[in-house]
Every structure is written in structure tokens, then in C-alpha cells.
Amino acid sequence: MSNTEILKKISNKTVKTGVIGLGYVGLPLAVTFANNGVEILGFEKNKDKAKAVNEAQNYIGDVTDADLTNVVKETKKLSATADFTRIKECDAVIICVPTPLDKFKKPDMSYIESSCIDIAKNMKPGTFISLESTTYPTTTEDFMKPIIEKESGLKEGKDFWLCFSPERVDPGNINYKTDNTPKIVGALGTEAAEIAEALYGLAIKHLHMVSSPRIAEMTKILENTYRLVNISLINELALLSGKMNIDIWEVIEAAKTKPYGFQAFYPGPGIGGHCIPLDPFYLEHIAKNFNFELSMIHTAGAINDRMSHRMMNKISFALNRHKKSMGGSTILFMGIAYKPDIADARESPALLIMDQLKKKGANILYHDPYIPEFTDDHGNKYICSELTDKLLSDADCVVFTTNHSCFKVEQIIEKAKLVVDLRNAVKSVKIEDGKVFKL
Ligand SMILES: NC(=O)c1ccc[n+]([C@@H]2O[C@H](COP(=O)([O-])OP(=O)(O)OC[C@H]3O[C@@H](n4cnc5c(N)ncnc54)[C@H](O)[C@@H]3O)[C@@H](O)[C@H]2O)c1
């Protein structure tokens, strides 16, 4: 089978495209394609999410309610299902499922594997398949291809085509969205590359074609590893600077005046989110197959792992200065999302610090306007406290863990007895002696 038929469908925009996994990555991608006139069928294991999409109920911050309503109710270009037999309706399928680490910090490939099986068992010959989930280099060729060929009895490059195109979404970024973030595309073979370029070109403004899936896979891991290593470096320097009575924030501002060769990274209580703390360990895993030790990633990960413990010590030190012990103190966390102005607390360092303090007997409260409640890994349920003057003044310590732009820092400091600022939230506020402790 040649790729002529699917290319024709792409050129007249009748290419029906499945998106598997409608989360932070999949839903914005599905809406972007649908907005550009492509009929999208979303496949989602979580039936509540599929139902929400079909009712145009938005659950992802980077998708606007208006866009979702438009593509679901008006143009009817987007619908969702949990029925994977409907993959046979699709000409192209894009996979956006999670790629977490297991408890031994090894890649959990089960989501990609089950998607491949669902596709293989249901697809028609001539289907184009693209993986967007972050993973280790060689996944598309050495992990996905054999599963799909075995389960479908079809042949890659002849009966179906494969590609890897990493998602680069930056949740909460108001300038760069799915359609205007340049997209890396690496396909297996020239026919697949032709399809990939044409299909993604329908919705994405700038494509950067690379020669193979493994180049694209490595590119994505390089981007995230670069951030892990540099944030871990600045966190370590921040801890040293704290001991030496040097304001690391002033140092960074000074270094930034260099017009070349320096890019600023900012310290904080640790690295969170679904990507940076996890993805580099996918590379570490595959490197072991080549008997290669990635010591830089390992060290950066170890620095990050220790951050929550160091932050706990910092809070304990501040309480001590106020002649209070950790046990029995009430500690209010301002912000539990892993970064400002988003509603995502996955892998958030705030949760790790809260957990450690709880184990030491502290009474933990939090306020985060984006996250009304959450349940931690031990099943403890937390509900967002309403931010009142009394809440602030009753707390023995208020900790800034996320610098949401809506926080009225000056007022919070005025009412609080003691503040530990792990995000440079208080930068423009005059600090009373002994009241604010910084990272
Ligand atoms: N969130 C980000 O900022 C970001 C950025 C770039 C890349 N990524 C990568 O994109 C991938 C997806 O991340 P995400 O943040 O969208 O995850 P997510 O958890 O928000 O969404 C994944 C969705 O897939 C669904 N799902 C799981 N298994 C499924 C299956 N077999 N079939 C159908 N649906 C299934 C889940 O119910 C969920 O709705 C990951 O590999 C991640 O590393 C994420």
C-alpha cells in the first residue's frame, strides 16, 4: 500500500484522526487540530473525561472553554469515546498517554504498550501512527513497531507508518501554545515522513523535520535533561549561598546582564511536573543497556531528591528562631502547584515537603486557588483553606511554595507571624527583621 491515499485525505482535510489520551497534552492537541478543520476522535480510558469532552466541559487550563465548545458543539469536529474498536474509523492515530516512572524509578511503558495493542487490534491497513509521549530513544522503532506488527499481523512501512513527534507544551505559557510551538517530527522512512509533515502541517505553524524517530526522541530528552541539570545546579548554589549570606537572586540578576553564554534558571523547593523530574531517567534507563552511566543526570536527580528534606530543615530552622518546634506547629503552604498559575500538582515539591512535615507532627494547611483539594499518596485528603487574615495570623509559619501571580504578598507578610519564602515571592517587599526567611 502506498501513502497516496492518506496524503490525498490530508490535502482535502478528510483525514479522520484519533488522539489517544485526552490529558494535558492530548486535549489541547485534539482541539488545535479540530480548530483547523480536522475531524478528531479522542480515545480516553477514563470514561468521565470522554463524557466531559462530549459535553464540552473543559478540564484543561490551556484549552479555552470557547474553543472546546466551538469544536464539540458548533463545528462538531471533536468527539471522544472509550470504545477502542472505533480506531478502525481513523486514518491517523496520535498517542498522548502518560509515561511515568515506577516506584524503582524505571520507565513504566505499560500505557504506550496498551495503546499499541489497542491500535494494532483495531486499525485498518494504511493507518499512520504518531507517538507524542516522552520516552527513551529507540522506543518507536524497537518497542512500538514489534508490538504493533505482532498484534496486527501488518508490516510497518508497507501497511502502516510510524513517527515520533514530542509534545513540548508548557502549561500556563500564554505566548506559546500547541499551534505556535515549533514541532520536532521524526518518522520511520520517507513515506511516513511525507505523511507526518502533511498531517502536522494542517495544525502546527512550524515543523522541524528530523531524519528518524530516535533523533526526535533524543531531542525531547535533551531539552528536559538540560532543564533538570541547570535547575539542580542553581538549587545547589542557592543552598550554599544561603549559608554564605549571599542573595542568589541578586546574583542571577547580575549574571543575566551578560549578553551571551548565560541563561538564567531560578532556584526553588525542587522540580515538579510530569516531565522534568521524570524524563531524564528514561534516558538513564536505556543508557544502562549500552553499559553507559549518565553521572550528570544521576547527580542532578540526587540533588533534586534531597531538596524537600533541605526545605523541611529550613522551615524547622525558622520555627526554631521563633522558639517553636515542628511538632504541633501549624504550617500554611501558599501554593501547591508545581509552577505558577496552573492547576497541576503532579510531582510538586510542595507535596513532598508537606508530607515530611506532617510526619514530624506539624499541622498542615494549604491555600492554592487553582487546586481546591487533593489526596496524597498515603490517602490523606487536604482541602484548600480559605485565605483570611485569621488563617494567616493563626499559622505559626507561612511558606511560599508556589509563586502564583494572584498572591498579595505584601498583605500576606503583614498578617503572618513568620514566613519562609522558597520562591523569591517577597522580592519587592520590605522585610521585618527575623520575620522572613529566604531559600
Ligand atoms: N503535561 C506536560 O506538560 C507535558 C509536556 C510535554 C510532554 N508531556 C508528555 O506527554 C505525555 C502525556 O502527558 P499528560 O501530561 O498529557 O498526561 P495526562 O495524565 O494529563 O493525560 C494522559 C491521559 O491519557 C489517558 N490514558 C491513559 N492510558 C490510556 C490508554 N491506554 N488509552 C487512552 N487513554 C489513556 C489518561 O486517562 C489521561 O487522561 C507524557 O508522556 C508526558 O511526559 C507532558
Global shape:
elongated
Question: Low-confidence spans: pLDDT under 50, at least 5 residues?
Answer: none
Provide the CATH topology of the largest domain: Rossmann fold
Total discrete domains:
2
Instruction: Count the beta strands.
Output: 15
CATH class of the largest domain: Alpha Beta
Approximately how much beta-strand content do the residues carry? 5-15%
Give the names of the bound compounds: nicotinamide-adenine-dinucleotide
Helices, by number, come to: 14
Overall structural class, as computed from helix and strand content, comes to alpha/beta
- Using the 3D structure, state the CATH architecture of the largest domain: 3-Layer(aba) Sandwich
Outline the structure in words.
- This protein has 439 residues and is α/β, with parallel strands linked by helices.
- It has helices at 4-11, 26-35, 47-54, 65-74, 110-122, 139-152, 190-201, 213-243, 248-255, 279-289, 295-321, 349-359, 389-394, 409-415, and strands at 17-20, 40-43, 78-81, 92-95, 127-131, 160-164, 183-187, 207-210, 330-334, 363-367, 373-375, 381-383, 397-400, 419-421, 436-438.
- Strands 3-2-1-4-5-6-7-8 form an eight-stranded mixed beta sheet, with helices on both faces.
- The protein is elongated, with a radius of gyration of 24 Å.
- Residues 20-26, 43-46, 49, 96-99, 111, 114-115, 133-134, 167-169, 171, 274-275 line the site of nicotinamide-adenine-dinucleotide.
